[in-house]
Design a protein that fits this description.
Layout (H helix, E strand, L loop, with lengths): L8 H21 L5 E5 L6 E4 L4 E4 L3 E5 L3 H23 L3 E2 H7 L11 H15 L8 E2 L6 E3 L2 E6 L5 E5 L9 E2 L9 E6 L3 E5 L2 H9 L2 H4 L2 E5 L6 H14 L3 E4 L4 H12 L8 H4 L5 E2 L4 H6 L5 E2 L2 H10 L8 H13 L1 E2 L12 H14 L5
Helix pairs in contact: 1-2, 3-4, 11-12
């Protein structure tokens, strides 16, 4: 990862890949069986770092070695992928992970047998280079979500021109669409006088806050998470927090799966443990529907399923939920055997969420001033 005035990410990515390729060739020239050493991506080698409040890989290492046929084929695929990445950076092209899988059909013995193999190799390259797949012009099928709020950005368009956009004044009701790559060489954050970011799980609630003018009235930046948020969404929130010094609150449904959506924004996810420091915002606070809210606001509810119960019980052992607030809320939810959606607040009218619920909770948190 680089800042705006450092080496451009395209050049950094090519340099890192050349170093990796040279290392493999040097081993071959030295008469050694080539290998690529990476942290083990096993559950036992992933730990929660309490100091930084993110998931990280431990010290255990593994190797992709040509000693066996399968390892040799993975190194062959690695070389093909690095050549593909170099070509895409040079030609200013990108491919989806799915396209990379199909491109490999032309690589002879180097072709992937499944997309899982190609996805894992993309992650391997992230781990050994310290860069992200977006730096390699590899993009996921899903895109980022939407933003509405008084923040001005400068985005590099498809023709290489810089375009300045205010995410409140220059967008429609759907907001600014977060691209798959939100690094500084693509999107620069120019200015914002907003007071905070509110990340919203569902599209219906995002639209409700937009229609009710919550961004303007509360001087907030609204970010639609689209359920479990894409990497680019989490990265955009992280950059807004770090560079614009905006506090982050996460507004979700009241169920164990939504609690995990919050945790992925705040602390990262096991799958992306190698880049958690670039995606996670540990100071983010939860403002979503809690078990206490269900009781306090007498919200319409659904009964917990057996799967919900097991998920909540697992969260009691999850270090991301290891504090008094989460223990109380999870235990209360298990006790009342109920869950609720954000839209349950509509019981009291379409304006209730912006006139009463959010102002009350944000004021209690100290995000909004009395």
């Amino acid at each position: 990862m680089t800042e705006p005035n450092e080496q451009p990410l395209g050049e950094a990515a090519v340099k890192k890949l050349y170093e990796l390729a040279e290392s493999i060739y040097d081993q071959i020239d030295g008469g050694k069986i080539p290998k690529m050493v990476i942290p083990l991506r096993t559950k036992g080698n992933i730990r929660f770092d309490p100091k930084h409040s993110v998931w990280k890989y431990g010290s255990a290492k593994g190797a992709r070695t040509a000693k066996k046929t399968q390892g040799a084929l993975m190194l062959l695929r690695t070389m093909f992928v690095m050549e593909l990445i170099e070509d895409m950076i040079k030609d200013q092209k990108s491919s989806t992970l799915r396209e990379m899988y199909y491109i490999s059909e032309g690589w002879g013995k180097g072709k992937f047998h499944s997309q899982d193999e190609s996805n894992l190799l993309a992650e391997d390259l992230e781990i050994v280079t310290g860069l992200m797949r977006e730096d390699f012009k590899l993009r996921p099928e899903e895109n980022g979500a939407s933003v509405i709020g008084n923040v001005t950005i400068e985005e590099l368009d498809r023709k290489g021109r810089k375009k300045r956009i205010n995410c409140l004044e220059d967008v429609g009701d759907s907001g600014y669409g977060i691209p798959y790559n939100v690094e500084a060489d693509k999107v620069q954050l120019i200015e914002s006088d907003a007071d905070f970011i509110i990340a919203i799980e569902t599209g219906g609630m995002f639209d409700r806050l937009v229609e009710n003018g919550f961004a303007e009235d509360s001087n907030a930046v609204l970010v639609h998470l689209k359920g479990q948020p894409a990497r680019s969404t989490r990265r955009f929130i992280k950059r807004l927090h770090d560079e614009m010094h905006l506090p982050v609150v996460v507004f979700t449904d009241g169920d164990p799966w939504s609690f995990r959506i919050f945790a992925s924004v705040a602390y990262g996810a096991i799958k992306t443990a190698h880049i958690s420091e670039f995606l996670a915002t540990p100071t983010a606070e939860f403002i979503g529907i809690t078990a206490s809210d269900i009781l306090r606001y007498d919200l319409p509810t659904d009964k917990l399923s057996d799967r919900d119960v097991k998920a909540l019980e697992a969260e009691l052992k999850d270090p991301r939920f290891n504090d008094e607030f989460w223990r109380n809320e999870i235990e209360t939810m298990l006790k009342i055997d109920k869950k609720a959606e954000q839209q349950a607040l509509a019981k009291y009218g379409l304006n209730y969420v912006t006139d009463k619920y959010l102002p009350e909770k944000l004021t209690e948190m100290g995000v909004l001033k009395k």
